[in-house]
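Worked problem 6 (solution included).
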Amino acid sequence: MAHNIDKELEEFRRIMEVPSTFEEGFRWSALFGAIFVALLMVPGAIYMGLLAGAGIGSAAQWVTVILFIEVARRAHRYLNRSEIFVLFFMAGSMMGVASTGGLLWQQFFVQSDAAAANGLTDQLPRWYAPAIESDSFAKRTFFHIDWLPAILMMLFGSFVGELANVILGYGLFRVASDMEKLPFPMAPVGAQGIMAMAEDIEAKNAKDAENSWRWRVFAIGGAIGLAFGSIYLFLPVISGALTGTAIQIFPIPFSDFTGKTGQYLPAVATGLSWDFGNIIAGMVMPFFGMVGSFIGLVFTMVLNPILYNHGILSNWKFGDDTVSTLFKNNIDFYFSLHIGIAVAIALAGLFQVVRSIIQSSKEKRKLRAAGQTKRNAWKDIPAGRGDISLWAIILCYFLVTSAYTAVSIFLLFWHHGGWEKVMATPEVRNDIRNVFIVLIILGFVYTPIISYVTARLEGMVGQVVEVPMIREAALILSGYHGVAVWFLPLPIANYGGMTVFYRQCELTGTKFTSIWKTKIILFPLILLSSVFFQNFIWGLDQIPSVAYPYAQKMWELNAANSCIMYSSTMGEYSMFEQAFNIVYLGYGALFGIVLFSSMNLLGAPIMMTYGVVRGLGQSLPHSIISQFIGALIGHFYFKKRLQLKWRQYIPVVAAGYSCGMGLITTVGVGVTFLSKAVIKLSF
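Solution. The predicted structure is:
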């Protein structure tokens, strides 16, 4: 098995090497870049997320980078790769906030049919959304006193979450990369686009554009993105803005065939996503991972009719669309099955980590016996990288975890009427005490363990491990009655994924201090721009509505799925009790263990195993098909022609494609905003 895994992952490992020097990437260009993204890209990202569900995250990053490279060039200044990386990181951070839904999702959820049907509307806490009677909903504005608690919580969560992520993720990177020397095979994929930009600048500066292959490949991807984006996103956006009727050549977000294929494939969601980005994504991702996803999808298409005929998928009815099919199947079977499979995944990941730790310990003992070990491995770091002391990392961890815990307990006291009322009510007092114990366990026990395990697994095979339903199980077992506990800023996180980012930072020769300075600048801009533009877009039209096809189609499904868990602490028969089945959970765990064990014995690539799990059940099949087609084209045509260069080329093509899509959709969103503003003028 090890040979097969290494053979595939080695393609990613060999793409880039760590440079010998590190440069400061934070300049005034980063500040101007942040302002540019805040004013132009954030509203576009929010709008496109509502329209198509994809947003313009990576596209906005490349648009920002290219624009500032060209501006700097005309000022006779050239950005180095570290400055480009900081610009890229800065734009990505702001897009990440813009794509979450944020306050727009919260205003929808409190008014949603799912919340009303499950009796949650009147029980949602004030720091999540104001009461449904608030006139802010009629006025469609967040600039209202009733929304102040929700905005303050967003401020707190953004600040503390970002602080913890960058500092604690850095500490885990030091352990996984510097001390344990893990390879991080997937990190070079994300750094290739940066190198393309830097190489282009260096080639033009040295009058040697012949060797700038990355820029040529990036330009090809950009042209593809511009061409497809003009048809897929720009046409419906611009036609809707100018005529009031959106013209869609390719349906957004996907074509739904479920209502027609139900007589042949009962309880199976069928359809196709027309987003060409899925084709490219299938080429970028490991081939065997895409093969596994397709195998899992086919398995589901065979299994669901059998489950339907045996009365397990009993809620499905002929004529149901994709959204209804996925939700009903989730309630009947897949909610519990996926928990069981996720348990098996977590156990497999933990097994890999424990096995690697044991092997590493044996190797260290051998080296120690031979007198070849290094002392103070924590201090064995590249010079000039911008590292910080261990005590700062530990202090940050304790401050962040304590802040989350203290604020959560304060919010519960506030929600239940204050100190005196809580202390006079034994049931509520016991509930809050139990929640406090849960917070301590999650923050000081579970979070550091799962973060380290993930960091190590990312370093070995580029995978993230998550123990399923830990948060949900902890809150349910606390015995708390009500839904307020689900909206607390819990001290549970997995900081291990951040280690890949720091590896990319290292590969591009960027000082880590550049990232931390950028975060300080970003925080107020992210807050102000996201609140302002969410308020502006809400004022344009009701959300969701026909103007936003993705939100209209998918948000109610997301709300219904969320209510499954929220209803579990209501103290009465709930949707959670209907969906949770310990027998199905056991089947899922057994299936996952058998899957991992059998593929291990057969020597199958580990990426295929994770892909099979991804393709099972409730992953949107419409995207998996497109991604599998892309994987086949990449593996059997381009890879045979280009060999290892294919693994270097395709991430750059993907970056260029995102840039092209971003350019064309940003223009469309700008025209839409202008047209809406003109319509609203009183003269």
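Discussion: Residues 2-680 form one domain.
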